[in-house]
Amino acid sequence: MTLEARVCVQRGTLAVDVELDAYAGEIVAILGPNGAGKTTVLRALAGLLSVEAGHIRLDDRVLDDPSTGVFVPAEQRSVGVVFQDYLLFRHMSALENVAFGLRARGVDKRTALARAATWLGRVGLADHAANRPSALSGGQAQRVALARALVTDPAMLLLDEPLAALDAATRREVRRDLRRHLAAFPGVKVLVTHDAVDAYTIADRIAVMDAGHVVQSGTIAEVTAHPRSRYVAELVGVNLIAGRSTGGVVHVAGGGTVVVADAPDGEVFAAIRPQSVSLSLAAPVDGSPRNSWPMVVRDVDRLGDRVRILLAGAIPLTAEITVAALDALVLRSGDRVHASVKATEVEVYPA
Description:
Elements: E1 2-11, E2 14-23, E3 27-31, H1 38-46, E4 53-58, E5 61-65, E6 70-71, E7 79-82, H2 94-104, H3 109-122, H4 138-150, E8 156-160, H5 168-183, E9 188-193, H6 196-202, E10 205-210, E11 213-219, H7 220-225, H8 230-236, E12 239-246, E13 249-252, E14 257-259, E15 266-272, E16 278-280, E17 291-303, E18 306-312, E19 317-322, H9 323-329, E20 336-341, E21 346-350
Parallel strand pairs: 3-9, 3-10, 7-8, 8-9
Antiparallel strand pairs: 1-2, 1-4, 4-5, 5-6, 10-11, 12-13, 12-15, 13-14, 15-21, 16-20, 17-18, 17-20, 18-19
């Protein structure tokens, strides 16, 4: 089973244009900030929203293609959906909620309840079959919603922020259980989330969305090794600079330059780890740094025994220093400092 899609939809001022593929057995996460268009893509895959251009194919079946006039309604697609708020029917028991999809497809009540009971057992909720949603914890409600989506044996499972409604302590446990349950489902699996931890711990591949487009995709290792957008760089904790490299110097559009140890000529990305940024009150006069820029401190954020300093200048940076270094420098918002980085600490790769 294979998903192959191009989703083009205009939603207000946001133009969504996304190409996505997924294969049976793997979990693909669509990761991005709020408003990036992630849920729009999921709704289109589910059949809750038709694409304006492009197509959606699930294996050899076309689900949506405006160029040929094909649109398969949601209820006729072999797709299960776990919504962000789970959308369990409050007046039904957990067992009846799981059986609902089967009953809607014409399965007789006895068979539907028997299959629902089997799925509740699979997700560890056999003892809660008679409970209504109000009597379930957040994690239990999530598992009921997952069982309801899987009981119909869909070819594709879609999950829209399935952990967003849980508190931090519950998320850790449910995240682990969710990965285990998803591993047992052989079909196509697409997860939408704004949480990098969810994507990194659950998914096999990620597609990073920003402003309606996929800005980077690949395995977790591929994306984190070479971020290609500021959003991804912030997720993995590095400073990302785009510019044109000439003779070992990266020229940035804003007017700054970065001296690097080795780089091909042409359009490049330069990545600098915050821990590689040194701060001083005066411009360095000796030592090995090849880069030094005057900066203004915009924010100081303590994180345990480390401190992250947001810096404004020709090349905006985030530096990470120790609490002792902060106390020695006595830095506050608005202070002027010099940021230095060794040329050998700058990783450069083609844009």
